[in-house]
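User: quick one
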Amino acid sequence: MIARAGAGPRALPGWVWRWGALLAALALWEAAGQATAGRFLIAGPSEIADYLWTNAGLVGRALAVTLQAATAGFLLGNLAAMALACVALLVPRMAWLISALALLVFCLPLVATGPILRVLYGAGTGPQITLAALAVYYTTYLPLLVGLRAAPASWFDLVHTYGQGRMAELLRIRIHAAVPYLVSGLQIAAPAAFLGAMVGEFTGAERGMGVLTIRAIGALDVPGTWALATVASGVSIMSYLALGALGRRLGTHPRDLLLAPPQATRRPPAARRALGRLGRAVGLIIVVLLLWQGLMEGFGLNPFFAKRPADVWAFLVTVPEAAANRALLLGAFAQTMVLAVPGYLAGLALGAMLAAGVVLVPGLGAAVLPVAIALRSVPIVTTAPLLVLALGRGATGTITIVAVMIFFPTLVACLTGLRQTPGQVMDLFATYAAPRRQRLLLAQVPAMLPAFFAAARMAVPAALLAATTAEWLATGIGMGSLMALTASTSSYAMLWAAIVLLASTAMLAYAGVELLERRVLRVYASEQRQP
Amino acid sequence: MLPDALPPPDVCCLGLAKTFGSGPTATEALRPLDLTFAAGQTTALLGPSGCGKSTLLRLVAGLEAPSAGHVTIGGNSPAQVCARAGLAMAFQDASLLPWRTVRGNIALALTLARQPADPALVERLIALVGLDGFGDRRPAELSGGMRQRVAIARCLAAEPRLLLLDEPFGAVDELTRLRLNFDLPRLWEKRGTTTILVTHSVTEAVLLSDRVLVFSPRPASVVADIAVSLPRPRNRDVMATPAFRDLVDQASAALWAGSLAGPLAAE
Ligand SMILES: Nc1ncnc2c1ncn2[C@@H]1O[C@H](COP(=O)(O)OP(=O)(O)OP(=O)(O)O)[C@@H](O)[C@H]1O
Ligand SMILES: [Mg+2]
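Assistant: Done. Structure below.
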């Protein structure tokens, strides 16, 4: 389809763009390193290579340790995700609760769960593996659940007309429909597992990439910090590409927009829907409180660090210092949100705008996508100290980290979404020789919206993670710093209060984005089955 | 509105061929084909499924690059004609934008053709295809046949001089289909439009066209070229005449004979 691919004579072949861009980036990087030499900012490729050469053994051993923990967490997290998705599918009435609990656990701030896990496990690799598993299971669970449902209603009708039931549905349709989604979920999970393992190592492990990173930051070792971030990025990108290759061998293709008629379910009236939502929220809170209390008692965890709901309530409401506690907590919270929200919005906006801009230039989209995909898997958080080094401890540094963390996943999602515009719609525009700008605005951007909103939802916990990690490792203000401080001074009630506050904020924001998404997609993706 | 001075164009295919892919998996969809579609005429294309009819239309619309030969529309290339919004295509699946209403989908053609918005025209087209009262619905709320009718209305909106219709009534019910078969030709006769219509219904082919081309199985070649000189406007009475039945029989026979000459003959 000449008109669609836009591979006109002006377009350069993709590899020219790709290698050209790579070389240009390396040259720029080296130049920046040279220009800022002596200012403890940027280490160029040559300095990094030098560091790695002299410390090959050290970095190699640390990498092996971290990779081991990441792999274990990756396997455990994904197994948990698959089990959860199957349960949610087989018990549809409970699906919302399972999804909500899964999201809640995903929204727990790693910066706080890290130290608590460390106290729980003591020394060893337990926290790293757990954090790696926690970092991946949701990014697999969600696409898997969508994939298991991503089939036109007529396929299920077909199975039913032969008198087959749920099992046949699962085996004949759902599993096949889910494979591409599962692969793309695993692809995102691999770098996330590595990131989770590194963050786990930040909290007092003996060995690993995270430990080296913390030491390098502490010693203001610029080449070291850059070298470790580069290695972490390289590993993440490689794991991403390897899983992508595996997916292609399995014969999964990028999924198309589903143009199946929507399920003929009648929407209940607005009042009843609102009531239902309220009921679910209350139910969720009750279940969470019961689980929280039950787990603590069930495992007989020491109340000194394993605070119960009542302890947090007392800390914030009934003890004499409650007002001061609240003021401290909310003050830090405000500091964090002031940075996280602009970063979140900027990351989303820039990602979507660049994706849209890129498709305006023939051939550029195909070239940018792999680069963006590779950069998406860079563990941004581990580069946070570098960005703060470069941009200073002020607001700009943290906002940039949050924005960068969200930018790449959004860009990738939007680029993919733009490419999923149905071919015949693009053909229609071609028969009127519609200019690219018009195709973009009238066809591609609306077709991109589902992907954009999916990215916006997943970016909510990511934004909080990025902001708190930057605060913890670099800027020393806000929730990240507060949590790190309370963990080291053993004021665990404050730590638990911080967890509750951040997790509920993330849940609420996620729900808010989801609500907006539903509104928009009811119009813009009315032919897609709503998950 | 286009100036009335613009006459409908003729369409010439010279040595037109299309092969998809290359090597052992190559699919030869069209083998070199010389065809002329006269200006202002309606030509119906009949042929077995998969023989290359859609491919031929897409080549004429410039949506595919020919492997050999070329297409001219009134002496111009397809790209030049598209740039002037001189043609409109109805795709085999309706391909409506799911986020636009029926009205919005029809009006889209005017936007794309760089013509001023014309709500009255849109309403007239909605009425023409029998969708009164559905102007504010979105495609997901319509039946397959209703969507196809929206696509036809969209095709007509910008008053193109060349219409490429790929099974435009495939999912429309028999009664509505017949009514459209009677009504639409009046519209394009009045304006002067060259029409190439792909259909699987022999009756419809004869009823709508001035000429019926019957294709063999893939790679398509013309096995029959039947002139249809029934009086216009055509209605139910025409369908009862012996001349009409005769033409339908001829086309059916050619279709049957063509299929025997093709790969199915072995069975
Ligand atoms: N993009 C493509 N890539 C490869 N092969 C194609 C492509 N488009 C069409 N073909 C092949 O070309 C042949 C003709 O297809 P085409 O769609 O033109 O058939 P058709 O006559 O319109 O059939 P139908 O009546 O079923 O719509 C088919 O064998 C098809 O497999
Ligand atoms: Mg066809």
